[in-house]
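User: These chains co-purify. Model them together.
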Amino acid sequence: MKKVKKQDITRLLSQWQKEFTVFVPSRENGAAEMTVWDGQDVSFLDWYRNTVIPPKANFLLNMEIMFGFRKEDGSYNLELPAAATQKQLVFGIRPCDARATSIIDMVFKDAYEDKYYLNRRENTLLIGMGCLNPYDSCFCTSLGLGPAEATDVDLMLTDIGDDFLIEEVTDKGKELVARTEGVVEATRDDESRAGEVKDTAYKKVTRKIDTREIEKRLPASFDNEEFWEKVAAKCVSCGICTFLCPTCYCFDINDEMLKGDGARYRNWDSCSFPLYTKMPAENPREEKWRRVRQKVHHKYTFYPSLFDVIACTGCGRCIRLCPVNWDITQTLESVPAEAATGTEKK
Amino acid sequence: MSETEQKLRNEAMTLLEQGRADYIIGYEAGSLKFTTTPLITRDKDDIDRLVINPFILNNLSVFLGDISGKAGIVAKGCDSRSIVSLIQDQQLAREDIVIIGVPCSGVIDLNKVEKLTGKDRDELDDIAWAGDKAVVTIEGAKKEFPAKDVLMDDCLSCDMPAPQEYDILLDEVGPLVCDKELSRSQIKELEEMSPEQRWEFWKNEFSRCIRCYACRQVCPACFCKRCFVEETEPQWISPLPKWQDNLIFQMTRMIHVAGRCTDCGECQRSCPVNIPLRSLSKKMEEIADELFQYKAGTDKDAPPLMAAYESEEAEDFIR
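Assistant: Joint model of the two components:
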């Protein structure tokens, strides 16, 4: 393993900036998010716990042009945007968000390969940074990962005092380190110090759910209208928990045209909104409890059945950013043990 | 448990037992530090979970539209005005609601506490009132802050901390720390800007709006069953989160809630990207008061501001 002096982080990022568009955590724009590094500011090392806007926004933009079009002589000429070839490097991504990105990769390269998303993914290096001070809303350890685990990133950094220990997780990461100045070999002591730091961080995550029990109980709860009505009662149907969830990937498609010139856009969408499922004849999720049920089941029942993994990494954003403190862990833990009697009218 | 809490639980239980309410809408302890969360229930077993503390932030009147039947609702001063406003707009029938008025001496703005202490809320041990000071405990050490530094801005300008309309009043309202200048300091800054500067300011703020609609969803004055932003034929604004459309959405919303907004502050508090929405809604409230001497939600028999016209009304509002 390698290490780099904390005071050399600016030097490290400056080198990388020559090759990549470097993104770092910033709250300059009013809400913490990954933004393009200004070449100087590394104050995030002091305040950064996690971003409000998840790093999925670097791959699935909250709004992007899919193609442009122009109406000429009764037909349309299409104009494809240049493929995203810009190499980017996201510095400081937390293990929960890195894992989340791997999880939604499965959708974007499933039956249909989404080149918009995948181009950005393939051109991006993820430099993880261990989360040593998790929030009280975090529950990553229940989803099989640790807050400082070297997972789903190219390099993983762990704060060991005066230095960051660097774990080379992928070949890409290894190659990057090889051409980076200021990185030196770590000692045995450094490695064992990192181990201690990781253990301490792991123990700081106190919010727990029992995923085995949930996977057993949740599918049977689907028709339990009474249960879902009760847990959904205080939800206000805003888009915070879904838009800011690192594993929510739904998008809407909209065309805009002015005087024959137009573009097809896609933008984030949310199953929390009644409009999401509105069709000319009916809306299968008009009632709030059906939408809340969908959100929970999608993450904990449907996604595992399709991709064999729970689409939640316990980042806790949906809990700490919710205006009414709707807490998914409480809902999951309160799913009744016995199968429902099938109260829903089909 | 405080005496007020005990009284609340007794009253709520009586309402359910006597059938005067089918549902109780109140607050229970939240799952995170210094939070409460709405408790909406018809189950008598849930009643002993009801709480009253300095963190009862949500304006619960937003849930009244979801309830079929009679509801007993816990309301602070601003919340009671939202209920009255909904009655004025014929969204609610007075006889369907039992208002349990709670004394409010302002709610604590956790963002302010975080700024003052340099710590996130989950890193604090305790926040408690001691007279007109808030005592914050961090790693065992106590720090005192004047109330005006930690109260929500909307609380600092509150004229009516006591419920304006109620069936049960749990307690007398204690003294409320007011600082109207401080409460509108950002509005003052905006007023002093040139129109071009203001335009740049709001352009910048609305550039980061993600259109999650939390501001609308937590707002009791936003009671439309179908919002104009969701109209598709014709489409009034684009669903894309471009700053221009974000701004149009919010401007239209603000006009719709003018004369209905009670400055409960929920829109700003809920915004995940910290857009200072109250600077718009509070300004609208001030204009309604200045031009029409109208304070939202203070008279359930009055017609809504935007639905009334008197021939002697000043017309110099077009400016």
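Chain B has a mean pLDDT of 93.
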